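Internal tracking record. Fields below are filled automatically when a chain is submitted to the structure queue. Please do not edit lines marked as system-generated. If the sequence contains nonstandard residues, flag them in the REMARKS field before resubmitting.
Queue: standard
Priority: normal
Entity type: single polypeptide chain
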Amino acid sequence: MARAIALKAVYLVLAWILVVSYQIFTRSALTTLGSSIPILASLINAQADLAIFVCSFAWMFVLSSLISIVMFGKERRLTIQFIVSLGLTLTGSALLGLLHVAGLDLSNPSVLSHPFTLLFGNIFFAFFYVALPFIFMVAVDLGVMKIKK
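SYSTEM-GENERATED OUTPUT FOLLOWS
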């Protein structure tokens, strides 16, 4: 029983780390996409905050759904999923806000170290990074459909 609780705590912490890191690096990935693909440049530049919100929301949705399934199995309820999502979002946003107040603006790509700048400056990696939650959703849905057959 204690092992199951510890494993669930590890899943929750891992999901939280993924949510926070996704929020940190999404702006850099979208900036790379906007500067590399002229068709997307005006859309991303005009609606950068909306694009970041949609991408972050997709990742939050995927992670909160999976965490609810892992933590609560068949007992999952919409309110529990909402509480998990809200908790992950609030703690992630609070951490980013505290870091910003402390003088570390992680949404500014120049603050990131050189390896991260190189990684997120690569258009293929940036595209994969932004598309990851959507790819994950499709993969999970296809897996569920395959199991039902």
